[in-house]
Write a structure and sequence with these properties.
The complex is a heterodimer of chains A (202) and B (79). With 202 residues, chain A is mainly α. In chain A, 67% of the residues lie in helices and 0% in strands. The longest helix of chain B has 19 residues. The chains are: A mainly alpha (202), B mainly alpha (79).
Chain lengths: 202, 79
Amino acid sequence: MTAIATDVTDHHLIAQFKEGSMEAMETIVDRYENRIFIFGLKMCGQLQDAEDITQDTFLNAFKYLNSFREETKLKNWLFKIAATACIRKRRKKKCEPDRELSLESFMNKDGTFETYDIPDWSDDPSDKVLQAEMKAVISNAIKTLPHKYKLVFNLRDIEGFSTKETADILGISIESVKTRLHRARMALREKISHAYQEGKSV
Amino acid sequence: MKEDCKKNFERISEYLDGELGPDDCQQIEQHLEECPECRDCFDALKKTIDLCKKNAQEEIPGDMQNRLKSKLRECFGNN
């Protein structure tokens, strides 16, 4: 028999839900809705899309929770459903195919590196305007990553899943997670640095 | 870009995430000490990740929870 991977609280809530408890269902929502919503927002950039993704995720989760065998953590299972909802939403919008990010594009043609100027978040925490501007720059940089890189970046660096967990959630290899994560980070470094430089020169 | 830099450049994320073995770590650390360009790349990448993580907080619409729960009750209330 496979060991149960869900944490104790989730395990009890799932058992109560299977017995028909609506309170257990709502407690599961309370535990995970914010994270799913933020993930949806980082993936799509629109409040309504993020709310749709959150709703789709929980509707599907509770539809299939009776057959969930707890071989993975509930949180990971919910993110797997949420990632699928993001991919479905993107397909519905008939977005352009994903661009590939190549490592060579982050190296200068003459074989040198460009120097990147990335601000510290703590540069001036009292400056709310600066922080709001930085927040917009960062959100926009993440939002404009190609979809498959954005999925990996949000799961690994924002949600804190391990490489193996991210690979399981997305159904891709560990090597693909590592490659996509590295390229996403390099692209973000470039985008944030350029936006910061432009802001400074205004 | 020198071959040595390229090889290390490709593995900087893995190094940052603690996913390399001790020999590879040592090799990268030595390279970072000797190569200012790669050191700069490494520092900028670390700062980028840090900035993005600190920026992760978002405002959740206050009425979303009510809408979500009433939809779920409507769908699963007669379980």
